[in-house]
Structures are given as C-alpha cells and as structure tokens.
Amino acid sequence: MTMVEEPITIIPARVGGVEVELPLGSTVLDACRRAGADLPTLCYGPTMTAANACRVCVVEVEGSRTLVPSCSRKLEEGMEIRTDSERAMHSRRLVMELLGSASELDRAGPDLERWMRQARAMSGRFGPAEPETPRVPPEPGHHRPPDTASAASVAEPARVEDELYVRDYGRCILCYRCVDACGVEHQNTFAIAVAGRGFDARISTEFDVTLPDSACVYCGNCIAVCPTGALAGKIEWDMREQGTWDESRQEVTRTVCSYCGVGCNLDLHVQDGRIVSVTSPHDHDVTLGNLCIKGRFGWMYVDSGRGV
Amino acid sequence: MDLRDLLDQPTSTERAAVDDLLGSAPSGWDGGEITPLDGHVAYGGHEARARRHLLLPALHAVQDAVGSVSKGALGYISTRLTVPPAEAYGVATFYALIDTRPRPATLIHVCDDIVCSRYGAEALKQSIEAEIGTPGATTSVGGSNVGWVPSPCLGQCDRAPAAMVHRAGTGYQNVAPAQLATLTGLQFDELPPGLIHQDRSTLTLLRRIGVVDAGSLDAYRSSGGYETLARAITMGRQDVVTALETSGLRGRGGAAFPIGLKWRGVAEAAGEEKYIIANGDESEPGTFKDRILMEGDPFAVVEAMTIAGFATGATKGFAYVRGEYPVAERRLSGAVDQAREAGLLGADVAGAGFAFDIEIRRGAGAYICGEETALFASIEGLRGEPRQKPPFPTEHGVFGKPTSVNNIETMVAALAVLDMGAEQFAAIGTERSTGPKLFCISGDVARPGLYEVPFGTTLRDLIVLAGGLREGNEVGAVLVGGAAGSFVDGDTLDMELTFEGAAEARTGLGSGAVIVFDETTDFGPVLRRIAQFFRDESCGQCVPCRIGTVRQEEALARLAADRPLGTLTDELGRLDDLAKVMTDASICGLGQTAASAIQSAFRLGLVGAAR
Amino acid sequence: MEDTDLVVLWGSNAREAHPIFFHHVLKAINNGARMFAVDPRRTSSAEWADVWLGIDVGSDIALSNTVAREIIHAGLQHHEFITHATAGFDEYAESVEPWTLQRGQEVTGVPAAAISQLAHEYASASTAQLCWTLGITEHHNATDNVLALINLALLTGHVGRYGSGLVPIRGQNNVQGGGDMGALPNRLCGFQAVADPELRGRFEEVWGCSIPGEPGKHISLMHEAMDAGELRALYVIGENPLQSEADAQTMQRRLSGLDFMVVQDLFLTATAELADVVLPAAGWGEVDGTFTSSERRVQRVRKAIDPPGDARDDIELISLVAQALGHHWPTPSAEEVWDEVRSLSWMHEGMSYQRLEDLGGLQWPCPSEDHPGTLYLHGRLWEEETGPKAPFSVVQWVPPVDTLSEEYPLRLTTGRRLDSYNTGVQSGRYPSPRRIHGVLDLSPEDAVGLGVLEGDLVRVVSRRGSLEAPVRLDRSLRPGLAFMAVHFPDDTDVNQLTIDAWDPKSGTAEFKATAVRVETLVPS
C-alpha cells in the first residue's frame, strides 16, 4: 500500500446558532470547541477512543430524543447543536454533582473545579458521603439497603503496594480511561478491568489481587490518563499528602528518554531543582503520551545521590 | 497477549467442565499437556483471541458444574481462550448468576420482585431465613449444602411466588408457586409453560402452546410448522421483507421498531457476515411472554429465525435466552438440534440453497443484556455494557457486523404475517399498531396469565379478560410496561392498548407487562422495589444511571423512614432532578426509564398517603 | 508500522526491550496485521504472534534460507522487483536450494509446517515489516544473519515501500546518533568514509588538522590490540566494558594491563574503579543536545536540572582535556557543535535546532531546511532509475562457536528484561516492583531433570568461567535452553560465561550462544 492523502471533506454545522465547518469524521465536541464552547469532559482523552461513560459533555442535538455525548458522536452535516440549553446544562450539572457525591474530586484539577463552579454544582446535596470502607468482593445484583443517613460513596483506603504507584480509588470516577490505556487503546496488558456491576463496579485486577501480583508492567500509562488523581506516581501522591506538591513551582522540560532507541519524548517536571514526575506529551506521535516503566520511573538514577 | 499465569490450578472437575465445552486443549501453551513440539512452535494471535465469545459459555460451564468460578478455573478459562484474567474476572463479576466466591452446592434464588413480594414472597423469605439463615449463609439440608439469595423477577408472575434452584452438577430448575417444603426437598418437576386461559383455536401467536408437543419437530410440522419457511422461499427474499414492511409489524420488545425496516437494513448492508439475534433475554419485571413462547413453541422461534436469515442474508443466528429460563433453553436447544438433523438448519436449509444455523446463548442474570447493544457485548464475551447508537445494529451489530435483533414475540408474529398475509395482518389492530399482541397480566387479578388480544383492546377489557380484580376490589393503579413502564390509574382504564394509546396515557407498552394493583395497595414498597431493581441492574457504565439509581433509591428510603434530607419539597426536587438526568443523559433505555414508574406514581399521587 | 499487514519479529523481544515500539506493532495487530515471532524463547512478544517459531539458538540463517527456498519453490517471489532492483538472484537461489523444509526443520527445530507458513504469508502479504534486534546481531556471524534477512526482503519486495521494510531496532537511546556522528572506526560524521581523501579533506579544513586515512579499530580489534600490547591507553566515555563485554575475566586482565585509563561517567562503575583518572560527567537531564532514535529521527534533548557536584557536560570535559593537552579548543554550546555537524554532514544539514524544536524531530536524510525528512529509506529501488542494484548475498549457515557437548549440554542465551537496561548502572537505581535479580532461567523440565526448585542456588559453568545464581523457572524456555539477563553483573555476571568469539565484519561478540552446564550446590 502507499500512503495516500485522503481528500478532506468539510461539513457545516451550527453550534448555538454559530456556523462552524469541520472535517468529516470530527466529533460534536470538536464542533462545540471550535465554536468556543467550554464544554466539560472527564472520560474523554485526546489519544483514545471516547469511552462515552461520564456523560458530562452532553449537548442537545436537534432531532435527538435524548441528549448526545459530544465526545463520541460524529458530527453530521447540518447538525443543529446547543450546548447551553436548559436540559443540557441541567444534565451536565447533575453529572458533576453525582460524581462529586460519590468520589473525592479535590485532585481532579482546575478545569473540573471551574466547570463545577460555573455550573453551580453542589456535590453535597445528596447527603454526607459514606465514610471509607475496605472494598468487598462484587456481588452483582445485590446491595445493602440504603442507611438513610449517608450517600453511598466509593471511598476506600488508598492502596500503596509498591514504590511506584498509588491507587487511591476513593477518587475514582470509573471513567474507563485507565482500563482502556492498560488495554486495547495503548498498552494491551489488560492488568485491570472493571469488575462488579452498577454502583459497585470498580477498577480491579483479577480477584482484586495486588498490583505486584497482577499482570501490571508498571508502565504508568494508566496514571497518565487518570483525570482525578485516583492513580498517581508514589512521589507525587506522597508530596500531595504532605502538602508539598506545587505545580506553580514546577518547570517542565521536554527531552528524550535515556534508555532504548525508540526515542520516546519525556516531559520532566522539576520542582525545587528535583525531578518529581515524568510524563510524555500526548501529542507526540511515537508515544501518544505512553511510556514504559523505564521511561516513566527509570530516571531516578539522576537523583540517586550521585557525585563521583 | 501478555497473560499472567494465575498460580491456582483448576480442579479436575473444573477442567473437565471447560474441556467439555471447548474440547481438550490443543497444546501445552493452551493449558494442555506439554509436548516437545511446544518448545518449537506455538499458535496464537488473532485466531486464539477470536475465541473470546466463548467466555460466558465457559464461565457457565464451570458455574454449572461446581457452583462458582474459582481462581484456578478462571485462570484455565483465560488460558484456553486467550482472555486476560482481569478481563475474564470483570466479565464474571458482571453477572448475578456467576459466582466468583465459593457458594453452597445448592442455591435457591427467591423472587421478591414487584409481583411475588405481594404474593407470598415475603412469607417465603421469612420461612427460608428461619430454615437456612440469612442470604449468603449455608445450611446442610438432607446432606447437601443449601443457601439462598433474593432475586429479581423470575418471569413466573402468573404463579407467584417464584423461585429458581441451582444445584451444582445438575442445573437450574424453576419452582412456582414455591413453598419452603418443595424448595428444601430438592425434588422438582419441570414446570409447564404456564396456563393459557383463552381458547387456543381462536389465537394466532399462542395457538400451539400447551396443545402441540414442544419437543417434537413432527408434531410442529403436523400443526403447520415450516409451511411458512416454504412460503417465504417461494416468495423470495425481497417479497418477504416487503410483506413485513406492509404488515406494519413493530417490535414487541419495547422499542417498537418496524421489523421490515430492520430486516431491510441488514439485507442491504454491505458485507457477507451478518447476524440474526432472537432476543429471549426477557427480564422486565412482570413479563413472561417470551418464556412461554420459547418453552411452548420453540420450533416457531427457530423457523422464524431461519426466515430472517433467508430474508437478510445472515447465515448465523443467536438465540439469547435468559439465564433464569432453563426450560426455554432446553426446548430451544432441542428444537435447533432436531431442525439441524432434518436439514432445516445448516449449509443448505431445506434444500433451498442458503445456509443458516443457530447457536443458543444463555444469559447469566443481567437485565441490561436485553438491551440490544449490551446483548452484543455479552455474546462477544465482554461485559454486558450498552454502546452508544449510532452506529445502529443493522450496520454495526454483534462482532461489528450488520445484525437484526428481534424479540421472540416479534419473531413469532413475523410468521403470522407470512401465514395470513401482510394486508390481513395489518387489518388487525389500529393503523399504527398492527396485529395480535401478547400481554402478561399479573398482580391483583383473578386469572393472571398470558393473553393474546388484538392491538386496540382497552386496558379495562384486558383486565376483564383476566377475570377482573380479586375480591371485587377497585383498581388502584396499573403498571404498564413493567419496571421500566409507568403507572396509570383507575381513570385511565379505557386507554387503548396500542403504541399510540399508551403514549397518550404517558406510558409505554414496553414488554407487554400489565401489573394490576388494587385500591388497597401501599405503593411505597412497590416504588422502593423498583428503585432497588434499577440500582441492582444498572451496568455502571454511565454516571447518570450508575449514581442516579443509587441516589433515587436513597431518597425513597429516606422518605419511607421519614428522614428527609431538607424538606419534602427538597427531596421531590432531588428526585425530579435525578429523573431528568437519567432520562436525558443515560446511554441506554435502562437509565432512561429508571425513574419513569416512580415519577408516574408521584404524578398520580399514588404515594403520599401511603408513605 | 501501524498500517502494515504482517510483522515478523526475528530475534527481538520488543515487548520488553522496546515497549513503545511494540505499541506500534500492537496497533498494527489490532488493525488486523498478522504477526510471526522467531525466537528461541516464547517471549512476551512472541505471545502476541499468530505463529511463534522457536528456533534453536544460532540457526537463523538456516531458517532464512529455508524460508527463501520455500518462497522460490512456491513461485511467490516478487519477480518484477527482483529483476528491476536487485542483483545476484540466481546465485542466491542456487545457494538456498539445499534448504528443504525437512532440512530446515532438522537444523532449526521448527516444524516444517510453521516454516512454510511463515514463507507463504510473508511472501503473500501486500506489506510486511521484518524487524530484528540483538537476537540477530549478537552472534559470531552477525552480519551474515542480517544479510540473510535482507535477502528475504529483496526476494519479496518488502523493502523501501510504505508499510514494507527492514527494521533493525536500536538498543540504545543514541547508538544511532553515535554512528551518525562518526563514532565508527571507518566513518566520519554522516557516514562519510574516512578513506575517501576528498571527504576527509572537508573535515580537515574545518577542523584545522589532519585526519589519518586509515580506519580505526572496532571494539573487538581494540581487545586484540590490548592483548598484543599495542593499545596501552584508553579513554572510556559512558561505557562499562568491564561488565558489558563478553568473557569478563579476559576483560579484567586487559583493562588492568593498560598503562593508563580515563573513564568519564555518571557513576563510579566497575570499569571506573580500574581507571587512573575518573572524570565526573553530567548526564541525561543535565545537558543539552540531540539523540537519534531507531527511526533515524533526530530529537532534541534538554537540560532540566543542574548536574551534581563537580560533574560537567561531556563537551566541556572533552574541551578541558584538549586544553590540558595544549590545544586551544573553545567550549562550544551543544547547538554550536550541532551546527558544525550540519556544515559537514549533508544528511543532517536541514536539521536546525529551531526545526527540530518546531517539528518534534526530523528523520535523516534531511539535506536542506525545506526538506521534510525521510520517512523510510530505499524507496529508490521502486523508482524508474534505481541507482545501484541491491545485491542478494549468499550466506551459509554456521553453527554457534561454543558447541554443546556432554560436558556443556545446555544452551545459554542472554537478553534484557522489561524494567532493566544493560549493566544496570542506571536502571538498578529505581525501585522496580518487577525486578528479577540475577537468576538463571531454566525450563521446568530441566529443573526437574537437575532436581532443583525455584530459588535453589546453582553453579553455572561454561568453558570460560562460572558463576552462582538462583534458579527461576520459566515456561518460555524449552528443555535444553537457559536464559540469563545481562543487568546484574555485580551479582551474576553472565559475561563470566559468554564467549568473545566475534563477527569479523561487525566486531560483535556472540553473547547469545554459550554452552554451559548447571551444577547443583549442596545447600549450606
């Protein structure tokens, strides 16, 4: 086969009355953003097929009975889209409120904070969140009756099972990004999946064995896509727990990995003269934001008390 | 793929159960005996990964044999099918009928859903609890370990209370009406499909039920069976599809999509590989029509699927039978085997030069798998999570191929179209709701059961047909369409039972469930049971449904306990907000209807006084 | 890679050694591509293959020649391409003629049916990528191994096209860049021949000095020169030869026997311990410059933190050494050095720092600032004017030098593990939960035969040396095949065992094929 440049078809659509033109194959989200709408997204990741799970990006599309997830719906010619209809704004607010009522969102970053503030989302309106309890094995089709005092939550103790990862599932919003990154979208290791059903569905290894006992290869590509800090490198998690993590004091320098010859780009996050985290840019065509264990964690020799 | 070996080994029983299904392992790499050849060659890759769709059947095999799926068994299945253990675990833990923790050899599932809970289930649960203990506990009864769990609707609402018993190594048995003594005696007869109170000779869809031997192809043929296939072949593909379009037949599973349009879509879709799916995953509380059809007239389902294959060019059909319907599964399997033996399935169906065959797939306790895209995922060996539409199944269905999914009743009705002629069929009912229709009536009526009436019959007439209310009571409300439907009250009994009539009455016919509640009903527990049902059955994929169903149940529980969060108005506002987001923003019909019955009950004022 | 129809990984465990490259293979697979893996072990890469061909170590040429004969006998060779773009086909065809499937099976151990399947699918695929790494090159006949694979690509036309090519995957971040810069005995920067006076002249002009026209020595020749007492002083930059070279005992003797050795490194490596002078170098993350990756892509590397203590940038250290030797070298910036490279190497000329920055790297050749870089090489073979024809090479299979015998019955091969790298100087310094320390991997069958259990300490003995290591059972190994990783020279220095028989063309030693025996140790 040869590399053929496919001719690009441009299709028109309207977002809130504003005419936009985008290439065929674009999503409704692309169109909304083109029109300048600040639509929230959580489960959507730029390097992945839309999981279409969180529904925080729903908009109104003329002719559609239900709201439409903008991240996964392909734009069609002549679509009339409204991002700010009462119905769409209501659902987006409720989705954020529901997520906030069940999961800890304080490390989900400034974007979500802004979206929630703009939507006047009140996570507390469903009652005080149920306190942290250890996870129980799934029993699909069965659950404890509500206690009438608290709002069921996913709070559970953070899992610190090794020196590289922390899995803090009380922050998990079940966006599927880690599962997809570990799975078919990127890493294809499939160490984690969604287990259980409904509200009791959780990210889990087989029989919830610890990460070191699982198929995990510690590439950290799940961490790279987690939107809420439920998955974090241990250095970052420790610093956040200690209150020393400060992105405003961090500088990011792009370089290339020092190990094999693939040429993965790395972003070194440096705070106070020390590397505190290594990521890879999502838009780099070699990595798409992914790395292996060496790339993501193998840099620590730089900081390992050198001085010949 | 990077399969990490689970350290646990399968027991010989578990291994045998899997090997019975899959055949013995072809090499050491697949979990079989290691030979010197294995040191120099291994086959895997695409072909190995393409066996993923056998995951649920393999889990069933182990569950059937030993009552649960251990680490060793899961590991063996993973190796045999090249499925990562974490994913296999994710699938196993999706289904209520697959246990990933050890459980007693005998497990009794006691229905405590809307109808059964009003007809003996609560007492039954109490007596079982006294005998066996709380759900999850194990007691030795007659030398066998027995436990029990509550269950959602088992589709036996005409003979409540219902139970289902699973004995490891033996299989599933439905028991209805269930009594403690029968359940713990562990001796059951196979239930008949259910009583049909109408004269069979006046009926179309139900004419063979209880009259023609459901286990005999010959009996089926002597009652006119397979004449329709012959007619279809004579008509040709195009005309069959056209006839269905002309008939106005719309799907009977709830979505009411015109079948002709669906078949045309698949027939005209590009590609060779296409599928027909008969959706027998009937799980809507209050619904049992498809069970009765599958149990009582399985060959009709097979014949209809074969015609669908002929008309659309699909060569493979799946009949997806609800896991709680063991008799239906056995009957359908028997019918498929006999049909195949008689050359009515296979490479050259009836000598007419087209290929079609049917595989039976068993559900495993997941209401959501009745949703067509979730059903695809279930067949493919994934978690039964729905997918966003578009793309629609006629283009992108099971295995990503064009697929027509039709409800069992729809399939049988399609036979009626070709038998009586499209115009004749269209003349029955109303302009927009054509043909005969099955309704499952249960609750406070004198003769609960399955009834066939022409579309357009009023709700009042249907209730009269079912003997009217028990003890001469008045109607309090009727839940039309099951848990996903809506209540109508006594003032609406003259509504026409049509798609359009139901819409006018702010409800939907849904699956044809009609649950009648008399004036003495306390609707509080009914609503809470409905809320509990959706919270249990939500797949968990999308936020509105996953968390919304929880918050809805919590709010109802607070109201019942008289512990509202804020004022009553706050609670109602919260419920209203939840209803809106679930209806507007959920991926699939489950979330979109999870608040419908509850909202209708508030609208009609059914709760308040009774709270 | 993503768009190819067939991937052959031959002597490459990319899943572990080049994980992100393997992501691209996985994309191809998920797009429907078929995959074959040729490897003595059924590695985690091979587990993804539609067919894994478990060859005996060192039988690659036998397999390649058998595949070639099968393609030719099935008439599946690319006739037009062979006629248009290649030379020497007839002689080649004749040379592979004895390699029947039966003989191939006997020599490689791989069933004839699997060999035949590889031949037919590779030849019939519309596009195919043939990838290899050290499983091909760490043999005494490394170059012949590579030529044998090139033959297959020429035979089928799977070269020089989008989606079809020959893909040697580089093991080190900048080994390609080292070559680009002329860190080769016979080449100057940009692969320009030292022996060519005209080319050399350009360098002499810019550098203001004369350059010897004689090629230098590659590493194996250096070893010989040390043994002969001709090479007396060594300047080692960023290498740990004491632990990375085959036959460690001999290396120890060689390095200790030098008159003078300077080691410039980040750490006080085992080699540095033997040095007369150690220069503390600034390392990755602390310096600016470029790396060239496997796909010839030059990318910028940048300084993010200051080096510790007295450590200095390599450029500065070299300049300081030159100054100390009485030369008036300036201390240029990395970009100034790069611009000099661009002025001398036509293939790098278009790659300004600004362009590398803007475009996220460029693939050479990139001769001018309006050139987009080159996605794949050898496209000329498909053009009307092909230029020089691509020659088939007649290559004969020769078994590994270190033969198996009653005394040394096990074939030990070596390689990398996912979380580690080379001699572990860098990768040993982070807390990997996946770390498998120095162990001897044995097949479960051999372990039973030897009466050892996982974790038991054994002595591994080769004709050159011995070491002790705990046993680890590995199902990816068949009876008779053992494996050790190269990462833990301090615990289990596998190069105590390996042979320094080396390929006369490339200078690479035969790390991949050692004959050993395993002795059980009485528990102390």
Short description:
The complex is a heterotrimer of chains A (308), B (611) and C (524). Chain A is α+β, with helices and mostly antiparallel strands and 308 residues long.
Would you mind describing this structure in some detail?
The complex is a heterotrimer of chains A (308), B (611) and C (524). Chain A has 308 residues and is an alpha+beta fold. Chain A has seven helices and twelve strands. In chain A, strand 10 (250-256) and strand 11 (265-271) form a beta hairpin. The N and C termini of chain A lie far apart (53 Å). Chain B has 611 residues and is α/β, with parallel strands linked by helices. Helices cover 41% and strands 14% of the residues of chain B. Chain B has 24 helices and 15 strands. In chain B, helix 1 packs across helix 3. The longest helix of chain B has 19 residues, at 114-132. The model of chain B has no long low-confidence stretch (mean pLDDT 95). Helix content of chain C is 31%, strand content 17%. In chain C, the strands form six sheets. A six-stranded mixed β-sheet of chain C has the order 17-19-18-21-16-20. In chain C, helix 3 crosses helix 7, helix 3 runs parallel beside helix 9 and helix 6 (101-108) packs across helix 7 (112-124). Chain C is globular. Chains in contact: A-B, A-C, B-C. At the A-B interface, helix 2 and strand 7 of A face helix 5, strand 4, helix 20, helix 21 and helix 22 of B. Strand 1 (41-43) of chain B pairs antiparallel with strand 3 of chain C, so a sheet runs across the interface.
